Amino acid sequence: MFSNIFLIPLIFLFLTPRNNYADNLKMLKIFGKVNDFDLNTAEIDENCIQTCFSNSDCILAFFNEISKCLLFFYNSTEFLEVVETTRDDGYFVAFKTNLTDPDPNYCPSGVKFPPRIIIDDHLIFWNKYSGGIWHYRKCKPFQRSNPKVTVCIQVFITRVGITQQEAKDYCSWIGWKLIGVANPDEAKWIFDKSMELVPDQKFYEGIWIDGERKTPGYDTNLSTSNPDFCPIESEISPKIFLGEDPISWTNTSDSTWQFKKCIGNWKMFKRSDPEITVCMQVFVLGNGTTQKEAENYCRSIGYQVTGVASVNETLWMLSKVWKWIPNLPYYQGIWIDGERKTPGMNNFTWTDGYTVGYRAFEVNNSMMSFHNEIKPSELENCLVVSRTYQPAVINDVACGKGSGADLGVACGYKLE
């Protein structure tokens, strides 16, 4: 929506140039609104944009035609989602941004509109997605020299005992990747940040970062520069990455090696109790998919609706849906296996033939209401994985129809 972008000329604040973003500080205005925030109870400020511009901690102003104004501040904001609207909607958003062009009358086109600003040495940036969606996430910027890139890092505390795969899936779930470190400064900042968040952490309680040793026995080098290096037979463990999972060969005897993988691009999960391997894939079938339609689809391709045995599995499912539908609405989920045995209890019958237990139903990963809050007589005894207003991703819904707006299903099978 290129025509929706305006330059708001205010007092130009010239900052000491520290990088390419610290030149002219301005406000850029579009027709838009901030999702999950309501202006009805906001106070009136006829100088909403100027108020934000004058406050060094303000990063965004959201207001309407009658000057009801909400301001968003760097020190109290972790995430924002802005959606472009039209003139008729009567909503406006003004981004605080540094422009590098020396022309004081310069106004970028829609294609070149990347709001970025530096506050307290932190780079604040917005990413634009399809459908006129803008996302803001706070980060710590680090300038790397070889190659010359700027990376943003943030530390998240989830729970004690999080696995490496769960850490990767969490980063993927919020739209990013598990990051590696390129210098001591980055490692020290990650450590200091974790100590700030958890001051009483115990020895060897750490934060997952990217990186996996390629060659056993090398303490710091993840690869060998010796072109003649060849491991002894007992160290041979052939592994290759194709798609999402490492594909390994297992030595079952002195002369026998076995190779197993899921079909196509299906995701492999290794479960520990019992020790089995399960393959899964998520399918988006359309808005309003019923439980029966979900079951029939999985059967039609030779599999069944899968249950879940870990937080890791549920986060992966949601990340797949989010990848296909970046503007995923709340509570529009995908069907998974499981039906409550006893009303009011978190005990479920699994029918897929391989799921047992309830390890996926941690307090922060399941949101059980047991009945429809609007129609209390309507029980919610079946399960979907969906985006919710809480960290939880497992949600109970009415069997059969679900929420009425569910999108698809997770199918699976046990790898023999």
TrEMBL record:
CDD domains listed in its UniProt record: CLECT
Keywords attached to this entry: Signal
InterPro entries linked: C-type_lectin-like/link_sf (IPR016186), CTDL_fold (IPR016187), PAN-3_domain (IPR006583)
A Pfam short name: PAN_3
SUPFAM superfamilies on file: C-type lectin-like
Entry keyword Cell cycle: no
Residue ranges of every copy of the PAN-3 domain listed in the record: 7-135
Lineage top rank: taxon: Eukaryota
Alphabetical list of PANTHER family matching this protein: C-TYPE LECTIN-RELATED (PTHR47629)
Name of this protein: PAN-3 domain-containing protein
